[in-house]
Amino acid sequence: MERTFLMLKPDAIQRGLVGEIIKRFETKGFTLVGLKLLSVSRELAEKHYQVHRERPFFQGLVEFIISSPVVAMVWEGEGVIASARKIIGATNPLNSEPGTIRGDYGINVGRNLIHGSDAPETALGEIALWFKPEELSSWELTNKPWIIE
Length: 149
Ligand code: IDP
Ligand code: MG
Hints:
Helices cover 38% and strands 16% of the residues.
């Protein structure tokens, strides 16, 4: 079953939006299989964002991610990677549709609340980077027949 890595960034935690944001993935019908709050090391932040290492915003982004705790999560479900990206919205919250997380709660690209894996390969790599296998639990929603035909 498809899995994605989602991270609530420090602004989401500081603004008290953890519950609001997690609720959106729960009520959509996806399954939470991993969850932890942690203070991120510089090494982990740099690894996570290494694809952006040459970008002018890289250093500021790393400083932001390590500035205050984040909530790291793995969610499971058919099509969860692309669907989560839609629920999250465009990178710049000013361009994100209302109804998306970034569209509803943000106005600045450097404070866009949440990260979501962008493809199957990146999801696999990010899950392995942030979680040990034993930190993930496979389980079945008891109301699954009421969500999936
Ligand atoms: P994504 O989070 O929507 O996948 P990416 O292009 O992968 O967006 O960029 C990663 C993160 O880098 C963004 O979520 C945002 O926090 C930050 N970022 C991207 N572009 C800019 C920028 O132009 N200025 C400041 N921060 C940026
Ligand atoms: Mg990205």
